[in-house]
Amino acid sequence: MSATTAMPLHLDDSEIAPEENRRRRRRRGGAGERPGWFVYTALSFVLLASLLPYYWSLLIGSGDSSTIRDPNMSWIPGGNFFANAAAVVNNEAVNFWTALWNSIWSSTVIALSVVFFSTLAGWAFAKLRFKGGNILLIFVIATMAVPTQLGVVPLYILFADLGWTGQIGAIIVPALVTAFGVFWMTQYLRQTVPDELIEAARVDGANSFRTFMTVGLPAARPAAAMLGLFTFVTAWNNFFWPFIVLDPQNPTLPVALQLLQSNYFVDYSIVLAGVLLATIPLLILFVFTGKQLVSGIMAGAVKG
User: Fold this and answer.
1) DSSP class of residue 190?
2) Where is the ABC transmembrane type-1 domain (predicted)?
Protein backbone atom coordinates (compact mmCIF):
# COMPACT_ATOMS: atom_id res chain seq x y z
CA MET A 1 0.00 0.00 0.00
CA SER A 2 1.34 3.42 -0.93
CA ALA A 3 2.63 5.60 1.81
CA THR A 4 0.89 8.57 0.34
CA THR A 5 -2.86 8.56 0.61
CA ALA A 6 -4.86 10.25 -2.18
CA MET A 7 -6.58 13.28 -0.77
CA PRO A 8 -9.93 14.45 -2.21
CA LEU A 9 -9.70 17.56 -4.33
CA HIS A 10 -11.71 20.49 -2.97
CA LEU A 11 -12.32 23.62 -5.03
CA ASP A 12 -13.04 26.97 -3.55
CA ASP A 13 -16.49 28.48 -4.27
CA SER A 14 -14.81 31.42 -5.97
CA GLU A 15 -13.31 28.98 -8.50
CA ILE A 16 -16.58 27.18 -9.16
CA ALA A 17 -18.78 30.30 -9.52
CA PRO A 18 -17.34 31.68 -12.80
CA GLU A 19 -17.64 28.33 -14.60
CA GLU A 20 -21.17 27.82 -13.26
CA ASN A 21 -22.16 31.30 -14.39
CA ARG A 22 -20.84 30.56 -17.88
CA ARG A 23 -22.90 27.37 -18.04
CA ARG A 24 -26.01 29.25 -16.93
CA ARG A 25 -25.50 31.90 -19.60
CA ARG A 26 -25.17 29.21 -22.26
CA ARG A 27 -28.34 27.51 -21.00
CA ARG A 28 -30.23 30.80 -21.13
CA GLY A 29 -29.55 30.98 -24.85
CA GLY A 30 -26.54 33.28 -24.90
CA ALA A 31 -27.87 36.20 -22.86
CA GLY A 32 -25.45 39.08 -23.07
CA GLU A 33 -23.84 37.81 -26.27
CA ARG A 34 -23.58 39.84 -29.46
CA PRO A 35 -26.30 39.39 -32.11
CA GLY A 36 -25.58 36.96 -34.91
CA TRP A 37 -25.33 37.50 -38.64
CA PHE A 38 -29.07 36.95 -39.14
CA VAL A 39 -29.96 39.93 -36.91
CA TYR A 40 -27.51 42.21 -38.71
CA THR A 41 -28.77 41.02 -42.12
CA ALA A 42 -32.40 41.67 -41.17
CA LEU A 43 -31.58 45.11 -39.76
CA SER A 44 -29.59 45.99 -42.89
CA PHE A 45 -32.52 44.97 -45.08
CA VAL A 46 -34.93 47.11 -43.02
CA LEU A 47 -32.52 50.06 -43.20
CA LEU A 48 -32.17 49.81 -46.99
CA ALA A 49 -35.93 49.45 -47.44
CA SER A 50 -36.45 52.57 -45.30
CA LEU A 51 -33.89 54.64 -47.21
CA LEU A 52 -35.06 53.59 -50.69
CA PRO A 53 -38.00 56.07 -50.90
CA TYR A 54 -35.71 58.94 -49.91
CA TYR A 55 -33.08 57.92 -52.44
CA TRP A 56 -35.73 57.56 -55.15
CA SER A 57 -37.01 61.04 -54.35
CA LEU A 58 -33.44 62.33 -54.55
CA LEU A 59 -32.97 60.73 -57.97
CA ILE A 60 -36.12 62.36 -59.36
CA GLY A 61 -35.62 65.64 -57.48
CA SER A 62 -32.09 66.03 -58.81
CA GLY A 63 -33.16 65.54 -62.42
CA ASP A 64 -35.52 67.36 -64.75
CA SER A 65 -39.14 66.98 -65.83
CA SER A 66 -38.32 64.02 -68.11
CA THR A 67 -36.37 62.00 -65.53
CA ILE A 68 -39.36 60.17 -64.08
CA ARG A 69 -40.40 58.91 -67.54
CA ASP A 70 -36.89 57.87 -68.59
CA PRO A 71 -36.67 54.02 -68.78
CA ASN A 72 -32.86 54.27 -68.68
CA MET A 73 -32.74 56.55 -65.66
CA SER A 74 -29.39 56.55 -63.93
CA TRP A 75 -29.17 55.48 -60.29
CA ILE A 76 -26.68 58.27 -59.69
CA PRO A 77 -28.27 61.60 -58.60
CA GLY A 78 -28.15 64.41 -61.14
CA GLY A 79 -27.01 67.96 -60.65
CA ASN A 80 -30.33 69.82 -60.67
CA PHE A 81 -31.39 69.39 -57.06
CA PHE A 82 -30.35 72.84 -55.89
CA ALA A 83 -31.98 74.45 -58.94
CA ASN A 84 -35.22 72.54 -58.28
CA ALA A 85 -35.07 73.42 -54.58
CA ALA A 86 -34.57 77.08 -55.46
CA ALA A 87 -37.62 76.86 -57.73
CA VAL A 88 -39.66 75.62 -54.78
CA VAL A 89 -38.36 78.24 -52.36
CA ASN A 90 -38.79 81.13 -54.81
CA ASN A 91 -42.26 80.10 -55.97
CA GLU A 92 -44.58 82.91 -54.88
CA ALA A 93 -47.63 80.65 -54.90
CA VAL A 94 -46.03 78.25 -52.42
CA ASN A 95 -45.03 80.76 -49.69
CA PHE A 96 -42.29 78.35 -48.60
CA TRP A 97 -40.81 80.33 -45.70
CA THR A 98 -44.23 81.14 -44.27
CA ALA A 99 -45.21 77.49 -44.55
CA LEU A 100 -41.96 76.38 -42.93
CA TRP A 101 -42.45 78.69 -39.95
CA ASN A 102 -46.09 77.67 -39.58
CA SER A 103 -45.11 73.99 -39.56
CA ILE A 104 -42.33 74.50 -37.01
CA TRP A 105 -44.47 76.67 -34.73
CA SER A 106 -47.64 74.56 -34.85
CA SER A 107 -45.83 71.20 -34.53
CA THR A 108 -43.76 72.40 -31.56
CA VAL A 109 -46.75 73.85 -29.69
CA ILE A 110 -48.85 70.74 -30.37
CA ALA A 111 -46.08 68.37 -29.25
CA LEU A 112 -45.41 70.25 -26.00
CA SER A 113 -49.11 70.59 -25.23
CA VAL A 114 -49.88 66.93 -25.91
CA VAL A 115 -46.97 65.82 -23.71
CA PHE A 116 -47.98 68.04 -20.78
CA PHE A 117 -51.75 67.49 -20.81
CA SER A 118 -51.49 63.78 -21.62
CA THR A 119 -49.00 63.28 -18.79
CA LEU A 120 -51.24 65.24 -16.42
CA ALA A 121 -54.33 63.23 -17.39
CA GLY A 122 -52.37 59.98 -17.36
CA TRP A 123 -51.14 60.75 -13.85
CA ALA A 124 -54.72 61.30 -12.69
CA PHE A 125 -55.98 58.05 -14.24
CA ALA A 126 -52.98 56.02 -13.08
CA LYS A 127 -52.37 57.27 -9.54
CA LEU A 128 -55.39 59.21 -8.30
CA ARG A 129 -58.43 57.37 -7.01
CA PHE A 130 -61.72 59.01 -7.94
CA LYS A 131 -65.20 57.73 -8.67
CA GLY A 132 -65.80 56.78 -12.31
CA GLY A 133 -62.13 56.99 -13.24
CA ASN A 134 -62.05 53.65 -15.09
CA ILE A 135 -65.26 54.42 -16.97
CA LEU A 136 -63.93 57.81 -18.01
CA LEU A 137 -60.66 56.24 -19.20
CA ILE A 138 -62.61 53.71 -21.29
CA PHE A 139 -64.58 56.59 -22.81
CA VAL A 140 -61.34 58.42 -23.69
CA ILE A 141 -59.94 55.29 -25.33
CA ALA A 142 -63.20 54.73 -27.23
CA THR A 143 -62.87 58.14 -28.88
CA MET A 144 -59.89 56.78 -30.82
CA ALA A 145 -62.34 54.61 -32.78
CA VAL A 146 -64.18 57.68 -34.11
CA PRO A 147 -62.88 58.68 -37.58
CA THR A 148 -61.44 62.18 -37.77
CA GLN A 149 -63.49 62.93 -40.87
CA LEU A 150 -66.75 62.80 -38.89
CA GLY A 151 -65.82 65.90 -36.90
CA VAL A 152 -64.51 68.02 -39.77
CA VAL A 153 -67.80 69.72 -40.70
CA PRO A 154 -68.89 70.81 -37.18
CA LEU A 155 -65.29 71.76 -36.35
CA TYR A 156 -65.04 73.95 -39.44
CA ILE A 157 -68.39 75.60 -38.63
CA LEU A 158 -67.16 76.31 -35.09
CA PHE A 159 -63.92 77.96 -36.24
CA ALA A 160 -65.76 79.87 -38.97
CA ASP A 161 -68.09 81.33 -36.33
CA LEU A 162 -65.05 82.24 -34.22
CA GLY A 163 -63.35 83.85 -37.22
CA TRP A 164 -60.34 81.54 -36.96
CA THR A 165 -60.39 80.08 -40.46
CA GLY A 166 -57.15 80.79 -42.26
CA GLN A 167 -55.25 81.20 -38.97
CA ILE A 168 -52.65 78.82 -37.60
CA GLY A 169 -54.51 78.56 -34.28
CA ALA A 170 -57.24 76.60 -36.05
CA ILE A 171 -54.92 73.61 -36.41
CA ILE A 172 -53.27 73.97 -32.98
CA VAL A 173 -56.33 74.12 -30.69
CA PRO A 174 -58.01 70.84 -31.81
CA ALA A 175 -54.73 68.94 -31.31
CA LEU A 176 -53.72 70.22 -27.85
CA VAL A 177 -54.38 66.78 -26.31
CA THR A 178 -54.97 63.34 -27.81
CA ALA A 179 -56.71 60.22 -26.55
CA PHE A 180 -53.74 58.08 -27.54
CA GLY A 181 -51.39 60.31 -25.54
CA VAL A 182 -53.58 59.97 -22.44
CA PHE A 183 -53.73 56.19 -22.79
CA TRP A 184 -49.98 55.95 -23.44
CA MET A 185 -49.00 57.98 -20.38
CA THR A 186 -51.58 56.24 -18.18
CA GLN A 187 -50.14 52.83 -18.92
CA TYR A 188 -46.55 53.99 -18.47
CA LEU A 189 -47.10 55.81 -15.18
CA ARG A 190 -49.21 52.97 -13.80
CA GLN A 191 -46.32 50.53 -14.27
CA THR A 192 -43.39 52.82 -13.45
CA VAL A 193 -44.22 54.97 -10.42
CA PRO A 194 -44.69 53.06 -7.14
CA ASP A 195 -47.44 54.21 -4.80
CA GLU A 196 -44.95 54.36 -1.90
CA LEU A 197 -43.13 57.21 -3.66
CA ILE A 198 -46.35 59.21 -3.84
CA GLU A 199 -47.12 58.56 -0.19
CA ALA A 200 -43.63 59.78 0.74
CA ALA A 201 -44.20 63.01 -1.19
CA ARG A 202 -47.53 63.56 0.58
CA VAL A 203 -45.93 62.95 3.96
CA ASP A 204 -43.43 65.68 3.11
CA GLY A 205 -46.37 68.06 2.60
CA ALA A 206 -46.60 68.16 -1.20
CA ASN A 207 -50.05 68.67 -2.71
CA SER A 208 -51.31 66.71 -5.73
CA PHE A 209 -49.95 69.06 -8.39
CA ARG A 210 -46.57 69.41 -6.71
CA THR A 211 -46.37 65.64 -6.39
CA PHE A 212 -47.04 65.40 -10.11
CA MET A 213 -44.35 67.97 -10.94
CA THR A 214 -41.68 66.48 -8.65
CA VAL A 215 -42.46 62.77 -8.97
CA GLY A 216 -44.68 62.07 -11.97
CA LEU A 217 -43.16 64.36 -14.59
CA PRO A 218 -39.52 63.24 -14.09
CA ALA A 219 -40.56 59.57 -14.04
CA ALA A 220 -42.53 60.02 -17.26
CA ARG A 221 -39.60 61.53 -19.18
CA PRO A 222 -38.79 58.47 -21.37
CA ALA A 223 -42.41 57.93 -22.44
CA ALA A 224 -42.95 61.69 -22.81
CA ALA A 225 -39.94 61.91 -25.15
CA MET A 226 -41.40 59.19 -27.38
CA LEU A 227 -44.85 60.77 -27.32
CA GLY A 228 -43.48 64.25 -28.07
CA LEU A 229 -41.38 63.07 -31.00
CA PHE A 230 -44.14 61.10 -32.67
CA THR A 231 -46.65 63.86 -32.03
CA PHE A 232 -44.30 66.38 -33.66
CA VAL A 233 -43.89 64.17 -36.73
CA THR A 234 -47.64 63.58 -36.97
CA ALA A 235 -48.42 67.30 -36.71
CA TRP A 236 -45.68 68.11 -39.23
CA ASN A 237 -47.09 65.67 -41.80
CA ASN A 238 -50.75 66.50 -41.20
CA PHE A 239 -52.42 67.54 -44.45
CA PHE A 240 -56.16 66.89 -44.23
CA TRP A 241 -57.34 69.43 -41.65
CA PRO A 242 -54.82 72.22 -42.52
CA PHE A 243 -55.81 71.90 -46.19
CA ILE A 244 -59.44 72.54 -45.24
CA VAL A 245 -59.09 75.33 -42.69
CA LEU A 246 -56.01 77.28 -43.86
CA ASP A 247 -55.67 79.72 -46.74
CA PRO A 248 -53.05 79.30 -49.50
CA GLN A 249 -51.45 82.53 -48.26
CA ASN A 250 -50.89 81.05 -44.78
CA PRO A 251 -50.27 77.31 -45.25
CA THR A 252 -48.21 74.62 -43.59
CA LEU A 253 -45.58 72.75 -45.58
CA PRO A 254 -47.77 69.81 -46.75
CA VAL A 255 -50.44 72.26 -47.95
CA ALA A 256 -47.85 74.48 -49.62
CA LEU A 257 -46.27 71.56 -51.47
CA GLN A 258 -49.68 70.54 -52.77
CA LEU A 259 -49.79 73.84 -54.63
CA LEU A 260 -46.91 72.61 -56.79
CA GLN A 261 -49.35 70.12 -58.35
CA SER A 262 -52.12 72.60 -59.12
CA ASN A 263 -51.14 73.08 -62.77
CA TYR A 264 -52.12 70.95 -65.75
CA PHE A 265 -48.53 69.77 -66.06
CA VAL A 266 -46.84 68.51 -62.90
CA ASP A 267 -43.05 68.68 -62.79
CA TYR A 268 -42.30 65.86 -60.38
CA SER A 269 -38.64 66.80 -60.13
CA ILE A 270 -39.67 70.07 -58.46
CA VAL A 271 -42.37 68.37 -56.39
CA LEU A 272 -40.00 65.74 -54.99
CA ALA A 273 -37.31 68.34 -54.39
CA GLY A 274 -39.86 70.17 -52.26
CA VAL A 275 -40.73 66.92 -50.45
CA LEU A 276 -37.07 66.42 -49.59
CA LEU A 277 -36.83 70.00 -48.32
CA ALA A 278 -39.81 69.32 -46.05
CA THR A 279 -38.17 66.13 -44.79
CA ILE A 280 -34.81 67.69 -43.89
CA PRO A 281 -36.04 69.31 -40.60
CA LEU A 282 -37.38 65.93 -39.43
CA LEU A 283 -34.08 64.23 -40.21
CA ILE A 284 -32.22 66.93 -38.28
CA LEU A 285 -34.60 66.43 -35.35
CA PHE A 286 -33.95 62.68 -35.27
CA VAL A 287 -30.19 63.19 -35.51
CA PHE A 288 -30.09 65.54 -32.50
CA THR A 289 -32.69 63.77 -30.35
CA GLY A 290 -32.08 60.13 -31.28
CA LYS A 291 -29.36 59.51 -28.70
CA GLN A 292 -31.31 61.14 -25.87
CA LEU A 293 -34.44 59.27 -26.97
CA VAL A 294 -32.77 55.86 -26.90
CA SER A 295 -31.04 56.57 -23.58
CA GLY A 296 -34.35 57.65 -22.08
CA ILE A 297 -36.06 54.48 -23.29
CA MET A 298 -33.28 52.30 -21.87
CA ALA A 299 -33.41 54.16 -18.55
CA GLY A 300 -37.14 53.54 -18.36
CA ALA A 301 -36.67 49.86 -19.26
CA VAL A 302 -34.03 49.34 -16.56
CA LYS A 303 -36.14 51.23 -14.01
CA GLY A 304 -39.18 49.11 -14.85
Assistant:
1) H
2) 100-289
